[in-house]
# Entry
Amino acid sequence: MIWMSELPPYIPFFLAALLVLVTHGNVRNIILLATPVLGGLHLWLDVQPFVPMVATDVLVTAKELSYQVTVFSYQLEFMRVDKLSLLFGYLFHIASFIAIVYALHVRDTIQQVAGLLYAGSALGAVFAGDLITLFIFWEGLALSSVFLIWARRSERSINTGIRYLIFQVMSGVLLLAGALTYYHQTGSTEFNYIGIESTAGWLILLAFGIKSAFPFLHNWLTDAYPESTPTGTVFLSAFTTKVAVYALARGFPGTDLLVYIGAAMTCFPIFYAVIENDLRRVLAYSMINQVGFMVCGIGIGTALALNGAVAHAFNDVIFKGLLFMTMGAVLYRVGNINGSDLGGLYKSMPKTALLCIVGASSISAFPLFSGFVSKSMVMTAMLQEGHNYLWLMLLFASAGVFHHAGIKIPYFAFFHHDSGIRVKEAPNNMLIAMMIAAVLCIFIGTQPQYLYALLPWKVDYWPYDMTHVLAQLQILFFSALAFVWLNKQGLYPPELRSVNIDFEWSYRKLLPAIARVSYNLLHAVNNGATRVVQQSWQGFQLIFQASRLSKYHLASSWPTGSMVLWIGLILGGYLIVDVYFLYIDDH
Amino acid sequence: MSNQEKDEKTYLFDKPRNVTHLLRGFYIICTILFVADLIVHRHSIHPWEGFPGFYAIYGFVACVVLVVIAKEMRKVLMRKEDYYDKRNDEK
# Structure
């Protein structure tokens, strides 16, 4: 099975995408389901990390030089296996399986093909051993995922998709520019630690930063994820940002700047999440907040922090996927996902409500749920490294997560006042998918040793001790108490049909306005200039007509004959000049 | 419609009694957690962490501050739902 172990995991997904194109009905469903199962089993059973990761704070990579292809003198390495890439490999198989089950009722070839290509690209990216291969799959992620947004088939989703694509392609272009500069500087395109000491490093960091939704580069996410189909968003939430987190963990561990960027990412989105009405957009903001914790962990760069970052990425894909699935189920049944219009849905969708609470408990990092076992690693590492003030920011963000994702999402959708909406429970395939995710959340939360065993760096860490559990329960229960108190006092901001201006305002409103103003200005200048020229010309004509020159016989009319005369004179002049220069050249 | 509403069964939180019970249980847990902090010794790294009730107070204050600021942000940032669908010069 040597050949098999060298099979890059994206290949089954790309082949399946082709097969899905030519099949339909049950055959197609079987192909869809079998792809992540077989691919995942193959990865689990046949593929071993070539060299185990060393227990140091510096990322030591292991390479397995196989499946190399040379293109334009660059060596492409499709299958670099170490514990870091394997962890994300497992994760993406689990995530794509859950998303495929969730979308099994969908009869839309475009979405199914795009979903497989998207998952395959994510796998290709995390197993890429060099920057050029990474770039290829980086663009693959962008080009395949945009169809999941366009699949909503509304004017709004088409515009959103175009904006999304512009950001993603920009990220790709930066990555390519960075990769080529890196090659120029180091003579290699291998994708290992990069750092920000060089221009190439900055270009690549910016490319990764766009995809991981750094502040001011984040609005593609909050713009696009709520506009996709109920099932498309589940795919979207799993891959793009997590590939970026993987890439940051590989290329920029211990980069101090990332601690500050990450801390900012945990804090600012929660304010937006509190006042946002579209519950899937609330989750999109909350996703930036969660990625912030990961970016912090990567920035700290100790073994504990890096393990915490990738473990949190693993858990986030599952619990955030679960939350997006429950909201997708509501959108699918009700046709609306605005907090202002929902409420009381626990009556007609009790199972979805319960599963949503499991997801909410996990993202809030309740003890016994998955978020707790990974977030606490980042928080502990933060304190160990002496980031006291930033730790307070992260603690603030932790309370805020519970507030907007842990309470707000289930409360406004399923409880609150009864909106009178009565619908059917979510379809069975959706329920099964949500159930798998919920079971994983609780399993990882109660038995974290299995996830910890998969983590790339060797660390002795156990989250369950008196201090941690008590502190976490206190912060969560008193956040909830604040919610209850604010509601009872009537201080809690009601859900209102609205949008809130974010940085996207600069390119969705300001830039078009500037463009329009400059166009109008140029138009006015053009008109003015034309008028001035016309008027002077007219004035000149008047003067000319009044003068004696106008009486000259060539001026009185413009017959063809006089034109021919003048042209003849001009050509004759040219001829004489020409002959003169020839004469000079000869002598 | 009114018939339908009458026929509909009463759900868990339709009875105010259940909501009251839930809230009472919640307050009791909060109290226990707060008291536990005075009894149990938590080991702490951060200078503020050792302060009894630190996490409870921080969690409560953080959320109130979060909501108050977010509400203020609304005054500046909130626009109508179709804000981005219109061009600047359209009313």
Notes: Strands of chain B lie at 78-79. Chain B touches chain A through 53 residues (CB under 8 Å).
